[in-house]
């Protein structure tokens, strides 16, 4: 029997996949990062698990309106934090830093 994983698709809606997602995210803060992120894993004991979502790719996370984690995805976060034109080739994120 094949294990089925529940991921978020690019439209931000849940979808089923036979492949485990590559990235995790926080649905409340709308942040995505690596599954090995020390910040995310430390937050699991504080109840973060109920807000955790998974993505098959960074493109799906971005399309769903999430931004990169500042701890485990530093290069992407630095690029996001500079700002730009949302959705452009050089700036794919849909949300801008505050």
Structure description:
By secondary structure, the chain is of the alpha+beta class. It has a domain at 5-67. Helix content is 21%, strand content 22%. The protein is built from three helices and six strands. The strands form two sheets. A four-stranded mixed β-sheet has the order 5-3-4-6. It has a two-stranded antiparallel ribbon with strand order 1-2. Strand 3 and strand 4 (31-34) form a beta hairpin. The longest helix is centred in the last third of the chain and has 9 residues, at 74-82. It starts with a strand and ends in a 16-residue tail after the last helix.
Features:
3 helices, alpha+beta, four-stranded mixed beta sheet, 98 residues
Offer a quick outline of the entry.
With 98 residues, the protein is α+β, with helices and mostly antiparallel strands.
What is the end-to-end distance?
Answer: 46 Å
Helix/strand-derived class? alpha+beta
Mean pLDDT: 94
User: Could you give a short account of the major beta sheet?
Assistant: 4 strands, mixed
Provide the spatial order of strands within the biggest beta sheet: 5-3-4-6
Specify the helix fraction band. Answer: 10-25%
Q: Low-confidence segments, ≥5 residues, pLDDT <50?
A: none
**Count of discrete alpha- or pi-helical segments spanning 4 or more residues:** 3
What's the order of the H and E elements?
A: EEEEHEHEH
Rounded to an integer in angstroms, the radius of gyration calculated over CA atoms is 13 Å
Indicate the overall shape. Answer: globular
How many strands appear in the DSSP assignment?
6
Strand content: 15-25%
């Amino acid at each position: 029997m094949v294990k089925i994983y529940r991921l978020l698709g690019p439209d931000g809606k849940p979808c089923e996949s036979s492949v485990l997602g590559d990235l995790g995210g926080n649905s409340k803060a709308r942040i995505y990062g690596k599954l090995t992120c020390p910040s995310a894993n430390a937050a699991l004991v504080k109840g973060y698990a109920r807000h955790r979502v998974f993505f098959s790719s960074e493109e799906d996370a971005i399309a769903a309106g999430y931004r990169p984690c500042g701890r485990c995805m530093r290069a992407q976060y630095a690029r996001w934090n500079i700002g730009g034109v949302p959705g452009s080739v050089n700036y794919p994120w849909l949300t801008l830093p505050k």
